[in-house]
Write a structure and sequence with these properties.
287 residues, alpha/beta, Carbamate kinase, four-stranded mixed β-sheet, 9 helices
Length: 287
C-alpha cells in the first residue's frame, strides 16, 4: 500500500495521526536486506514514515555481510537455536561489519533519498551481559561473545529523534568491563521499543508472518493475542529463528508497546501496509 496519491494518503491519515510523534522501532534484517530493489523500497518507505510525522528508529541486522566477511577470513559460521556462535575472532568481524559497513550504508542511502539519518553503534546504547549456554540435544552450547540485553541507554536515540533524524542502530552490546558482544538484533529491537515507550514494533524479515505451516502461505496467522503464544510454541508453530523475535516481542508488549508486527520485508510496501491500512499486513500481536 504505497500512499502514492492523495486518496491513499487520505485513507492512511487516521493511522498517521494515531502514531504521529511516537517512536516506531523497525527491526530490519534477513533476506529483506539482501536484494537491491527491496532495500530501496524499504528505505523509501521508512523515509516516507518520517516525512509524514512518524518517528522511525531502525535496528538493523547484517547476517549475510557478516557471513561473507567470516568466510573471507577462513571462519565457518555456526548457529545454535537461531543465534550465531561468536568466538573472539568472529566478534571483531561482526563489530567491524555492522558498524563500518552495514550501518554507514543504510545511513548514506537514507540521506540520498532525502531522509536525515544518524548512525549509532549498539556498543554505546546496549548494556549487555554474556548469554548463558543454550540447551541442545547434545548438551549445553556456549555461544561465546554473544550477549543478552541487560539495560538500554536511549539518550543518543532520543537526541537523534529530537534533531529530526532517523536513528539507525547496530545490534552490538558492551559489558561493564568494555567487552564487545554480538547481540541478536530482534532482542535489541524489543528492548529498545520497551525503553523508548514505542507504540509499535515492526520486524521486517523474509517470511510473510507467523504461519501454522511455513510451506503454506495460506496458513498465515494475521492477528494473535499474547495468550496465544504459549499454545503455539507447544504446538511447534513457533520454533528456531522465530523464537528470539517472539521473546523480544513479548518483552516489548509487556512493557507498554501496543502492537508488534511481523511482515515480509521483501514484499512491496509491506511496512506501510502493516502500519497505515485497516487490513494490515503479516502477523500482528496485541497485548
Amino acid at each position: 500500500m504505497p500512499p502514492a496519491n492523495l486518496e491513499a494518503l487520505a485513507d492512511a491519515l487516521p493511522f498517521i495521526l494515531r502514531l504521529r510523534g511516537q517512536p516506531l522501532v523497525i527491526k530490519y534484517g534477513g533476506s529483506a536486506m539482501e536484494e537491491e530493489n527491496a532495500i530501496e523500497r524499504t528505505l523509501r518507505d521508512i523515509a516516507l514514515l518520517a516525512a509524514v510525522g512518524l518517528r522511525p528508529v531502525v535496528v538493523h541486522g547484517g547476517g549475510k555481510a557478516i557471513t561473507t566477511r567470516m568466510r573471507e577470513a577462513g571462519l565457518k559460521p555456526r548457529f545454535v537455536a537461531g543465534l550465531r556462535v561468536t568466538d573472539e575472532a568472529s566478534v571483531a568481524i561482526v563489530a567491524r561489519t555492522l558498524d563500518e559497513e552495514v550501518n554507514p550504508m543504510l545511513v548514506r542511502r537514507l540521506g540520498e533519498i532525502g531522509a536525515a539519518a544518524r548512525g549509532l553503534s549498539g556498543r554505546d546504547c546496549v548494556r549487555a551481559t554474556r548469554a548463558a549456554p543454550v540447551k541442545t540435544p547434545e548438551g549445553p552450547a556456549d555461544l561465546g561473545f554473544v550477549g543478552d540485553v541487560e539495560d538500554m541507554d536511549v539518550s543518543a536515540v532520543r537526541a537523534a529523534l529530537e534533531a529530526g533524524e532517523i536513528p539507525v542502530l547496530s545490534p552490538l552490546g558492551r559489558t561493564a568491563d568494555g567487552t564487545t558482544l554480538n547481540v541478536n538484533a530482534d532482542t535489541v529491537a524489543g528492548a529498545l521499543a520497551a525503553a523508548l515507550g514505542s507504540g509499535r514494533l515492526v520486524y521486517l524479515s523474509d517470511v510473510p508472518g507467523l504461519m501454522r505451516d511455513p510451506q503454506d502461505a495460506d496458513s498465515l496467522l494475521p492477528s494473535l493475542q499474547i495468550s496465544d503464544i504459549d499454545r503455539l510454541t507447544k504446538a511447534g508453530v513457533i520454533t528456531g529463528g522465530m523464537m528470539p523475535k517472539i521473546e523480544s516481542a513479548l518483552l516489548a508488549l509487556g512493557r507498554g508497546v501496543e502492537r508488534v508486527h511481523f511482515v515480509d520485508g521483501r514484499a512491496p510496501h509491506a511496512l506501510l501496509g502493516a502500519l497505515l491500512t485497516a487490513h494490515g499486513a503479516g502477523t500482528e500481536i496485541v497485548s
